[in-house]
């Protein structure tokens, strides 16, 4: 578990700094030509941890109605507490602190793959994130989601097994 202190971070001062900076600067921070935020910055701006989606996200779209679509090159596996499977397209309704009606994300629970339905951060200070996996709610520590994990295509498991056999054959 990770605990954060606020002693060396002052968000209010930082915001003031940004405001003054954007007033003085000829370049507006919200200039229309600035590139869209990365998916991980987007998550953070919506009160969600950036590690919720893997490093390998290729692109995303966010519609006016809140529908977020995230695109990966191929389905892949990663691990937080348990193993988690991302489909090549993950879809959900993004609003502040939640992803509702998630499609394309499953997590392993006692050898069963259960689709994740909702992901909710009610209170960041609690240090907890809530996963609705249909049969139950799971509370996990937010600290598991601090950094975007690497997500491995499923085929890589087979390749590793094959490689090991190859080494054994050479001995
Ligand atoms: C939200 O907008 C997207 C793109 O405009 C559309 O494809 C989708 O059907 C809409 N979803 C709902 C529930 O209205
Ligand atoms: C997403 O959630 C927002 C807020 O709850 C709601 O207003 C909106 O209609 C939802 N969009 C979709 C596509 O379900």
TrEMBL record:
Q: Which residues form a coiled coil?
A: none
Which key words are in the record?
Signal
Task: Identify the species of origin.
Answer: Hibiscus trionum
* SUPFAM superfamilies associated with the record: At5g01610-like
Which InterPro entries is this protein grouped with?
At5g01610-like (IPR036758), DUF538 (IPR007493)
- Matching Pfam families, A to Z? DUF538 (PF04398)
Keyword match 4Fe-4S = no
Protein name as it appears in the record: DUF538 family protein
Q: Does the keyword Thylakoid apply?
A: no
Q: Where is the signal peptide?
A: 1-30
């Amino acid at each position: 578990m990770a605990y954060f202190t606020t002693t060396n971070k002052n968000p209010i001062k930082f915001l003031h700094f940004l405001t003054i900076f954007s007033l003085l600067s000829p370049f507006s921070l919200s200039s229309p030509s600035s590139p869209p935020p990365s998916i991980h910055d987007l998550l953070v701006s919506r009160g969600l941890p950036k590690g919720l989606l893997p490093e390998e996200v290729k692109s995303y779209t966010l519609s006016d109605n809140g529908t977020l679509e995230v695109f990966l090159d191929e389905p892949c596996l990663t691990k937080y507490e348990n193993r988690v499977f991302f489909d090549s397209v993950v879809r959900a309704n993004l609003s502040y602190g939640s992803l509702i009606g998630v499609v394309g994300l499953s997590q392993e629970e006692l050898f069963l793959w259960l689709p994740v339905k909702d992901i909710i951060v009610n209170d960041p200070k609690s240090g907890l994130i809530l996963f609705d996996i249909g049969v139950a709610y799971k509370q996990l520590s937010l600290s598991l989601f601090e950094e975007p994990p690497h997500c491995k295509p499923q085929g890589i498991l087979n390749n590793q097994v094959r490689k090991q056999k190859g080494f054994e054959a050479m001995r």
